[in-house]
Write a structure and sequence with these properties.
Largest sheet: none
Number of strands: 0
Strand content: under 5%
Low-confidence stretches: none
Number of helices: 6
Length: about 140
């Protein structure tokens, strides 16, 4: 019984930690792939707020990928680690990341279109997909 509780707790913690690492890793490397607009300081929240109006569509690709893939990987990890109720654990990761996304959308006033796409497609659907990826069984060879 205690082993189940420990493993299920590790499922949540592990999913959050690994998902957050993926999220921040993508955010941190995004500038190497898509340069920020000239004069925008991405190293501080205030710098990001001040320069957000200069962002183009391409500047929102990595934030969305970070949120979606962080949630996907976090839910995947939680599904693998959970002893039982695996879908509930994957969904819990999605909900927790969704709360983070809602908080970010309040703190960083992004365009409405991005907030809607991010909140609708970046969290709960990715948590469900993370769960389903664990459930996929390879086809047997003939």
């Amino acid at each position: 019984m205690l082993n189940k509780i420990i493993r299920n707790t590790l499922a949540i913690v592990g999913g959050l930690v690994i998902g957050s690492i993926v999220n921040m890793g993508l955010i941190n490397c995004s500038g190497y792939f898509i340069s920020p607009p000239d004069g925008v300081d991405l190293s501080t929240a205030d710098g990001l707020k001040e320069g957000l109006h200069l962002f183009e569509l391409k500047h929102f690709i990595f934030p969305f990928l970070a949120h979606a893939l962080g949630t996907l990987v976090g839910a995947f990890v939680a599904t693998i680690l959970a002893v039982n109720h695996k879908f509930k654990f994957a969904l819990t990761i999605g909900i927790l990341f969704l709360f983070g996304g809602i908080s970010a959308s309040v703190v960083l006033p992004s365009p409405v279109w991005f907030i809607v796409i991010d909140l609708v497609f970046g969290y709960i659907p990715m948590a469900i997909l993370g769960f389903k990826l664990v459930r996929i069984k390879p086809k047997e060879e003939n």
